[in-house]
Amino acid sequence: MTHIIEARDVSVTFGSGATKVEAVKNVSLTLTTGEPLGIVGESGSGKSTLARVLAGLQPPTSGEVLFDGKPIYKGNKSYVGDERHLVQMVFQDPYASLNPQLTALSAVAEAVRIHDKCDRKSAEAKALELLQSMGIASMDAAKKPRQLSGGQRQRVSVARALSANPSVLLADEPTSAIDQSAQAQLLNLFRGLLNQGLAIVLVSHDLGVIRYLTKRVYVMKDGVFVESGDTESIFNDPKQAYTKELLASIPGTLGVAARKKLQG
Amino acid sequence: MTNTTKKLLQVADLQIGIPHPRRETLVIVNKASFDVGYGEMVGIVGESGSGKTMVCRSMIGTLERRGAKVLAGQVLFEDQDLAHASEATWKKLRGKAIGYVPQSALAGPNPVLTIGAQLSEALKKSDTKGTIAEQSKALLDLVKIRRIDTVMKQYPNQLSGGMRQRVMIACALASSPKLLIADEPTTGLDVTVQAQIMVLLKEIRNDFGTAIILISHDLALIDDVCDRVVVMHAGATVEVGSVAEMTSPRHPYTVALNQSRIDIAVPGSELVTILGNAPSVGQWPDGCRFAGRCTIVQNDCTSGDHPPLFGDRGAHQSACLHADLLKGR
Description:
The structure holds two protein chains of two kinds.
Chain A: E1 3-14, E2 21-32, E3 36-40, H1 47-55, E4 62-67, E5 70-71, E6 73-74, E7 77-78, E8 87-90, H2 94-97, H3 104-116, H4 120-133, H5 138-141, H6 150-162, E9 168-172, H7 180-195, E10 199-204, H8 207-213, E11 216-221, E12 224-230, H9 231-236, H10 241-248, H11 253-262
Parallel strand pairs in A: 3-10, 3-11, 8-9, 9-10
Antiparallel strand pairs in A: 1-2, 1-4, 4-5, 6-7, 11-12
Helix pairs in contact in A: 3-4, 3-6, 4-6, 6-7, 10-11
Chain B: E1 7-18, E2 26-37, E3 41-45, H1 52-60, E4 69-77, E5 80-81, H2 87-93, E6 98-101, H3 115-124, H4 132-142, H5 148-153, H6 161-173, E7 179-183, H7 191-208, E8 211-215, H8 219-225, E9 228-233, E10 236-242, H9 252-259, E11 317-318
Parallel strand pairs in B: 3-8, 3-9, 6-7, 7-8
Antiparallel strand pairs in B: 1-2, 1-4, 4-5, 9-10, 10-11
């Protein structure tokens, strides 16, 4: 069991003085190669900030993050070696993270060209292959983001993230802006990627998605982890009051069971 | 509470379209039929683009603002036909007998008005008793906002998403409407806040007998709080029934929706997805609009008109010609 990513005592502080916000406080986390890991929490819990720290987008105020045993931040620079491409991120709103002027194909091809340093033609061929593996037909690949459905857009951004052949995919609320059946499609794809050995960090407030996909989960509140462990045991036997409340809020069958437990 | 003989709202064979000066009128809703009883909580589910929001816009008379209009059918609200109501009629109904909570809680309240000003705006048109300040406070208390005096002086950007949605619900309740339409009221809010808002909606229904239409694409959520469910696909109502009846769905689309539910899936198992995409507006095929994605499609499904809802109004209705084939699934 090797830890592909390890965060040690990471803190992130924004602002200073009266407006100082401690978004993440002394958080430590490990991610094993090929592992599906969940981070749950409500808005403002610091989960997205933590994801950005892991992705190399947000230098921590203190603490360190190791990728394959090597620190990823040197001062304010991150992933100074060749590792940058190995950690890729998918964002919450695919519409905002795709260039509205580019077709799905050129958006992905551009990423392929940068990472593989190849010519346009072979980049487009590989991009099309990636898009098709994400269930985007070549007819849809020629469309611009506004012509695609929400689920398709999100799959285009996953294809773009995969163009770098990453070993870790950080997904920040990837399912919150899409329909139920599109969500099922995306989760099936994620499951396929896990089988291929990709590690996925799923940041979400949707506990149903976390339960379905991840094996281990960190529950975050106000910048700290209140509970962590095996996803199944946390869902069946939550220890912290906050986790219990969170579980009871899930709509449908899962929540009903948790609500019954909460009432004793 | 529930009046069994008379319905508060009756939508029958509703057809909504966007007229175009040169091209053919684009039909976006066709064959939408359902009822809402007094004090009943009805959920409308469907994918984005299935027409759920447009149907609700026809109940508050804001279709024209999107360039759309009712082409045919009826929207009866207590014997008043809303489908062809005049602007004067709307002024009497909208925000009074029918309240509306828009989709985006974050963009809902006017950013340059304090919460107090926002509420007095809503209360000006109502004819309830007491001073506006007293009433505003009572409304905020009703939607369980604490520190009312502070909140009255605050601007929307100083409130959290959940608080803003509560304010929007307070505004919609200002004139004690008989019908409250909540269009995806919890999209973008945390699960815990979502659960609180749902508890609030249920209390409003139970305490005041307000009928509520809850639009959502989350079947699990609707199962939790609603009495009846209306399923929409590509501009048509394809299944209508009580929450209990929906556990044995009679339309393949509902079957697929149920199967793609993540809260009942075994972790790590293959999730059932619905084949392809819903047909785009303006490209609806002949016959059933779900036929292209259906697992039990038959020869007679792809010709003629889109099937209407079969069965008695008020009972479990499905628009599937071959619902019998679903038995035992």
